[in-house]
Amino acid sequence: MDALVQHFIYPLSHAGGYVFEGGRQITPDNYWASSLVGKTDEWGMSTGYRLIEPGDWVWAYFSQPIAQILGVGRVVKPVTWHARWGRYSVHIRWDRALTSALKKKPIDYAEYQQQVQGAAVRANKSTVQVLEGWLLDHGSRWVSEARAVKFAQREVLQRLGQAEFRARVLKAYGGTCAITGTPEEGVLQAAHILPIGNGGRHTVANSLLLRADVHNLFDLGLLTITPGMKVAVDPTVTDGIYRGLVGRPVSVPRAVNRQELKKALTEHRSRRNK
Question: Where do the domains of the chain lie?
């Protein structure tokens, strides 16, 4: 399965002895108490932790006795090791609107019939079709946007001279995302402001060091930088993670030629508006 956007089904049941944060029993009502306010939860991962990535979907599946999917959210940061739990964990930000829709009308197991026992599993091809169809039916633009974002990421990694260019940009920006402040090198990418072959060059002044998902939105023109060096996000991107970036100042190190950088960003905005 060539899943550009991955979906994981996370089974929940109090029978396993697990509890939510604060010792709350694993019940639909206790789940909705956090998910319907857009909370970000940290959940343990005993399987799938090598596959799941930021931006992937996580579906909350209550196995017994109801066998229904009651909520959905997205992974917001790379998987980390949780020392106290003795296993990996994933941070999930629940989508309030979509989870509210699932509360009113859950997805029954009979609609997709992929077996899920004990631990999170990646959705198979037929289940993905059901889940993405549900998202599109409920007005989520993220499915098509995320596919475009992942495709753009592939093209970025194939650009001539990318490895050397990335090393120089990492050094110039001190290994920190210019927008989110993320210091995790594994998810950072050197973004060309103006594409190579379209007026851009492999120079630090034509670059921003960005977290992978932010880079992809930037390449698609869904995220731009204002003349005042602050973040602007296209209104079609409704996810709270990215709406929260609006107005955030962009961190540009002294080593970068700010005048050339601003000139490139101006051109980037103008191409977006054409």
Answer: 7-139, 147-273
Structure pTM?
0.52
Summarised one tens digit per residue, pLDDT across range 161-217 is 667 888 899 999 999 999 999 998 888 999 889 876 566 788 899 999 999 889 888
CATH 3.10.590.10 fits 7-139, yes or no: yes
Provide the CA 33 distance to its chain's centre, in angstroms: 23
> Cα separation of 274 and 272, whole Å?
6
